[in-house]
């Protein structure tokens, strides 16, 4: 899910908005009864259930955009391939991947180069069919071709519309930035004419109907909310930084994501048409931007109680980094290979905080999911951040297999789909961006203002079902660690059975404030809860699963 989730500080045609609602660092560990915050009760679980119990290491694969494996709060819990000698250029364990010490990167080349920006899948499909159907006569097409032709027209419309929209928004942000800079210059000039310094701003006398009043109020708001600002140059630097986030966001859409003339796959050097090809890429699991994957990894297993940073949910985990997600949509071939790599190298839980509305080759992913199921691996996937009903709009990859089994679609038994909730135990409990689905989204988990690790020993709060998913992966890892005998199917059953039910009305994501019963938004109608899950694991499986 490469749809970036951030609060744009500057909104087009509106007043400036500064700051965000204060977040509770680590709120997702809290307990509603003890702390009045609807977390997953992990602090309570460690204090009352897990204290003194023995655990075994569990490998959790993070299939994402990269992980900073040298982060101060992650380096001690990173998976190290026991059969590989670092840096010798030899495939010591004969698994097909050279020097895969921390995992593998399926979107890099043998020369060490990496894919950064990439298309969205809709753009790739448009490019794929454009050469074939650009000048086609629909009347002369057979049934299969007509289906492809309809997909071509759909993707063409989306790409052209979205690229145009992104270009327009990019221009508006640039113009808005220029306009604000002129306003700042006008206030600075007014102070100069009145022989006033920056610190004497409040002494500036303006007429009630002065054209300068809006600019002056804007500058004052910035100064009041940003205590480090001491000059007009500081204000401009602050504004430029905030605007650059939006400019970069829409520039990426125009130049890469919706640009049919851009295709970076040559960097990888594989035969992209061959979905069965497995051995390509490089061992750079960090890649050019590891912010998302590093954040996800910290939520799952950042070293607990070490006095720095934050606490992960699981306390005996090894994170395996598998890079398949660029700044764009992941490719099905890479996702399938990432799942297989993780399963073959010992991962028992796979976190997949990504997704897209189109699929290039669903069959190859389905085969990998079935392969992981045979290996006893639990797959945990993000529902998506489009405030949509996944029962109506498919969000790939999905637990529903494309191949029909005895006249019906078969679902993967080793799969959980996760929506995001906030720290508010009221009608705003469900994150406004979260996808949902009575049949397709299994449960919800904390995904708003989640504080975790980011590259180069930093930390930040992110929002998204991308954050909710590793919360569930962390819970699964704790269960597997303390009850290693549990199968993937049993882990899923325990997690779903133990959710904290919410008998209340919540605002339906994507609506204008319409209230719905929370239990209508997911299969379980609940939020993941580690404390409850451990109680059920003990009651149902006890000593047998602890072996």
List keywords for this structure.
two-stranded antiparallel ribbon, seven-stranded parallel sheet, alpha/beta, Rossmann fold
Describe the protein's topology.
Layout: H1 32-35, H2 42-50, E1 58-64, E2 103-105, H3 121-133, H4 143-193, H5 213-225, H6 232-257, H7 291-301, E3 317-323, H8 332-344, E4 349-352, H9 362-374, E5 378-382, E6 400-405, E7 408-411, E8 415-421, E9 443-446, E10 450-454, E11 458-462, H10 465-482, H11 488-497, E12 500-501, E13 505-507, E14 515-517, E15 526-527, H12 530-540, H13 542-545
Parallel strand pairs: 1-3, 1-4, 2-3, 4-5, 5-8, 8-9
Antiparallel strand pairs: 6-7, 10-11, 12-15, 13-14
Helix pairs in contact: 2-12, 3-4, 4-6, 7-10, 8-9
What name goes with the CATH superfamily of the largest domain?
Peptidase S8/S53 domain
Helix content percent band: 25-40%
The main sheet orders its strands as 2-3-1-4-5-8-9
Distance between the termini: 37 Å
CATH topology of the largest domain: Rossmann fold
């Amino acid at each position: 899910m490469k749809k970036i989730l951030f609060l744009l500080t500057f909104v087009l045609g509106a007043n400036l908005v500064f700051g965000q609602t204060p977040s509770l660092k680590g709120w997702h560990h809290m307990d509603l009864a003890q702390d009045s915050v609807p977390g997953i009760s992990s602090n309570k679980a460690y204090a009352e259930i897990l204290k003194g119990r023995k655990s075994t290491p569990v490998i959790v694969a993070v299939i994402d955009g990269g992980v900073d494996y040298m982060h101060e709060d992650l380096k001690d819990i990173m998976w190290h391939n026991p059969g590989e000698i670092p840096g010798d250029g030899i495939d010591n364990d004969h698994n097909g991947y050279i020097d895969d010490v921390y995992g593998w990167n399926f979107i890099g080349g043998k020369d060490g180069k990496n894919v950064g920006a990439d298309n969205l899948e809709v753009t790739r499909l448009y490019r794929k069919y454009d050469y074939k159907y650009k000048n086609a006569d629909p009347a002369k097409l057979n049934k299969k071709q007509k289906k492809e032709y309809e997909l071509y027209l759909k993707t063409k419309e989306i790409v052209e519309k979205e690229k145009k929209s992104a270009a327009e928004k990019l221009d508006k942000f640039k113009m808005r930035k220029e306009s604000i800079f002129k306003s700042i210059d006008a206030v600075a000039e007014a102070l100069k004419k009145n022989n006033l310094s920056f610190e004497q701003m409040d002494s500036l006398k303006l007429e009630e109907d002065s054209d300068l009043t809006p600019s002056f109020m804007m500058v004052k708001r910035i100064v009041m909310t940003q205590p480090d600002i001491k000059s007009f140059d500081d204000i401009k630097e602050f504004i430029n930084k905030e605007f650059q986030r939006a400019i970069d966001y829409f520039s990426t859409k125009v130049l890469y994501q919706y640009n049919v003339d851009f295709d970076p796959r040559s960097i990888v050097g594989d035969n992209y048409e061959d979905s069965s090809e497995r051995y390509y890429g490089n061992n750079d699991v960090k890649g050019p931007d590891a912010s998302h994957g590093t954040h996800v990894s910290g939520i799952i297993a950042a070293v607990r109680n070490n006095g720095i940073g934050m606490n992960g949910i699981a306390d005996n985990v090894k994170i395996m980094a598998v890079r398949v997600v660029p700044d764009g949509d992941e490719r099905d071939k890479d996702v399938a290979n990432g799942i297989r790599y993780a399963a073959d190298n010992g991962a028992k839980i796979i976190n997949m905080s990504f997704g897209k509305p189109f699929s290039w080759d669903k069959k190859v992913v389905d085969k990998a999911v079935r392969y992981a199921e045979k290996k006893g691996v639990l797959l945990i996937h993000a529902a998506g951040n489009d405030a949509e009903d996944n029962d109506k709009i498919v969000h790939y990859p999905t637990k529903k297999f494309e191949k029909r089994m005895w006249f019906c679609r078969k679902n993967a038994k080793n799969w959980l789909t996760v929506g995001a909730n906030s720290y508010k135990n009221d009608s705003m409990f469900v994150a406004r961006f979260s996808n949902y689905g009575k049949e397709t989204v299994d449960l919800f988990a904390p995904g708003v203002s989640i504080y975790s690790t980011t590259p180069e020993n930093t930390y930040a709060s992110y929002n998204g079902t991308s954050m909710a998913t590793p919360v569930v992966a962390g819970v699964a890892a704790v269960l597997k660690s303390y009850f290693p005998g549990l199968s993937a199917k049993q882990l899923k059953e325990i997690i779903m059975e133990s959710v904290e039910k919410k008998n209340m009305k919540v605002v339906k994501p994507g609506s204008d404030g319409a209230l719905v019963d929370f239990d209508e938004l997911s299969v379980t109608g609940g939020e993941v809860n580690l404390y409850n899950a451990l109680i059920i694991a003990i009651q149902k499986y006890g000593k047998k699963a602890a072996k």
